[in-house]
Amino acid sequence: MKQETIDRIRKFSEDRDWDQFHSPANLAKSIVIEAAELLECFQWSDEKYDIQHIKEELADVLVYSQNLLDKLGLDADEIINMKMTQNEAKYPVEKAKGSAAKYDQL
User: Fold this and answer.
1) I want to staple 103 with a disulfide (CB 3.0 to 4.6 A). Which of 17, 90, 95, 98 is the partner?
2) What is the C-alpha separation between 77 and 67, in angstroms, rounded?
3) Residue partners of 30: CB distance under 8 A and separation at least 6
4) What's this model's pTM, rounded to 2 decimal places?
């Protein structure tokens, strides 16, 4: 995410004095709630959906995720690359390519 966008998210919360409500637990709950709303966009059809609604719900997930990163002092690039390294080890291309099987079933 661009620094300008991160700064805008931070300013939005700061201007409203919402940090007091942003405990890690509250932010994690909010991420799950918004993710459920994103899933609701596909509730009755995998092919027919409102892309604008999807963008709005996905944005909510990302905003709350950035707030949680800030609250915990985490860096998105660092933790994503850490997890990708783990995933690459669990899902080697030669075993996982074209398969939806979980790593312990490869």
Assistant:
1) 90
2) 15
3) 64
4) 0.91
